[in-house]
Design a protein that fits this description.
By secondary structure, the protein is an alpha/beta fold. The chain folds into two domains: about 290 residues, 3-Layer(aba) Sandwich (Aminopeptidase); about 110 residues, Alpha-Beta Plaits. Helix content is about 30%, strand content about 25%. It is built from eleven helices and 15 strands. Strands 1, 2, 3, 4, 5, 6, 13, 14 and 15 form a nine-stranded mixed sheet that branches. Strands 9-11-7-12 form a four-stranded antiparallel sheet, covered by helices on one side. The chain has a two-stranded antiparallel ribbon with strand order 8-10. Strand 1 and strand 2 form a beta hairpin. Bound molecules: (2S)-amino(hydroxy)ethanoic acid and manganese (II) ion (3 copies). Belongs to the peptidase M20 family.
Length: about 425
């Protein structure tokens, strides 16, 4: 392989900021709504379209895009551009979104990773490690209630995943996965062993107010929150709202309401965990003059301390059982996804901070209250995360935004950090 220009330190390399911003705009049209929100739930048609769109951009750039059995999209440079045979550096995030979410959550990290790879490729740069870009499948779990699906497969946590996952309406993941090029029977082939990566780097919007308030351009993430997601099914007995006596009703919605109150109180009054939320509920038959027979709801608990998180989970389980007895309904926790809190790698944090400084950007070290694929990949490799400011600190809503300048700065810091590791 002939390398025309060998910018081994990479100091001369700059990403194409205009191309990055244009790609983000175009991606936001896929699943885009009139209010500026984006709905690209994992394994939906829009998600599939976005994946194909990004794979096409990679191919047009002369890169190679493949899909592993878990549905993760991997982008690589053809040929061997490594100066050594140390394990690869993985860079990425996710393309799927929550229902009516923002245009940057996840998408930014994937498009920036593509830009990093394309920049290296166009410069013919030789790097110490192979650099691989990745979009992890179904990070949010908006349609299939297995958040971090792709990174859990990647990290080999197959035991923690249901064997035949279904979406909220009972459609099998097996089919949805096959449609994007994955294979539920071959998940093992998509797993990476501990030590097989030098590092995983994820660039993301902060989704909170810290960087904006402090007036910093770059966030060096020091830790990622722990999280427990529980999908709860409560079954009672439907009946006529006007004729069924109050005595003896088996109303699952009343039990759900009490449970929601308990969940909020866990964090707000009892301070058992940092935050606790019920963000999704489905009521059947959802009719104004019928007592419901079925409620499905999702509990999201977060804390940086695994012991507190475990205690909060036990409290929810206990409360659900007690409330179900009281309300004479059946309640089951259909699935629980636990993601442990993690610390990012100190060497990577230092590399991010040095990169930001060298490029002349202000920075702040901060924790992440949102979950990220990085905390799953941390099982097998040192991980690092770079944040850029979120305007008004909001995310998972259509108004999620970051200034174009900060978006470009983040990608440049990402590139420099990759070259430094
Ligand atoms: O829910 C989260 O923290 C993330 O956006 N997946
Ligand atoms: Mn998100
Ligand atoms: Mn995200
Ligand atoms: Mn009637």
């Amino acid at each position: 392989l002939t390398v025309a220009d060998k910018p081994r330190s990479g100091t001369s390399l700059r990403i194409d900021g205009a191309r990055l911003l244009d790609r983000l705009d175009r991606l936001a049209e896929i699943g885009g709504g009139e209010d500026g929100g984006v709905t690209r739930m994992g394994f939906s048609d829009a998600d599939q379209e976005a994946r194909a769109h990004v794979a096409r951009q990679a191919a047009e750039a002369g890169l190679t895009a493949t899909v592993d059995a878990g549905g993760n999209l991997l982008i690589r440079r053809p040929g061997d551009h490594r100066g050594s045979h140390r394990p690869p550096i993985l860079v990425g995030s996710h393309l799927d979104t929550v229902a009516n979410g923002g245009r940057l959550d996840g998408a930014y990290g994937v498009i920036a990773a593509l830009e990093v790879l394309q920049t290296l490729h166009e410069a013919g740069a030789e790097t110490d490690h192979e650099v691989i870009a990745i979009s992890f499948a179904n990070e949010e779990g908006a349609l299939f209630p297995q958040p971090f699906w792709g990174s859990m497969v990647f990290a080999g946590r197959l035991d923690a995943l249901p064997s035949e996952p279904e979406d909220y309406s009972g459609r099998p993941l097996r089919d949805a996965l096959a449609r994007v090029g994955g294979d539920l029977s071959q998940l093992k082939t998509a797993t990476w062993a501990p030590g097989s990566l030098t590092a995983y780097l994820e660039l993301h919007v902060e989704q909170g107010p810290v960087l904006e308030r402090l007036g910093r351009s770059i966030g060096v993430v020091e830790s990622i929150t722990g999280r427990i997601h529980m999908s709860v099914q409560i079954n009672g007995k439907a009946g006529h709202a006007g004729t069924t006596p109050m005595e003896g009703r088996q109303d699952p919605l009343v039990v759900a309401a009490r449970l929601i109150h308990v969940v909020q109180g866990l964090a707000r009054e009892e301070k058992l965990c940092r935050v606790a939320t019920v963000g999704r509920m489905e009521v059947q038959p959802n009719s104004p003059n019928t007592i419901p027979n079925s409620v499905r709801l999702d509990v999201d608990l977060r804390d940086s301390d695994p012991a507190r998180l475990a205690a909060a989970e036990q409290t929810v389980r206990g409360a659900l059982a007690a409330l179900a007895r009281l309300g004479n309904v059946r309640a089951v926790i259909e699935s629980t996804v636990r993601s442990a809190p993690v610390q990012t790698d100190r060497r990577i944090r230092d590399a991010i901070a040095a990169s930001a400084t060298e490029l002349g950007h202000s920075q702040e070290t901060l924790p992440s209250g949102a979950g990220h694929d990085a905390q799953i990949v941390a099982d097998l490799a040192p991980v690092g995360m770079i944040f850029v400011p979120s305007i008004d600190g909001v995310s998972h809503v259509p108004s999620e935004r970051t200034s174009p300048e900060d978006l470009v700065i983040g990608a440049e810091v990402l590139l420099r950090t990759v070259l430094k590791l």
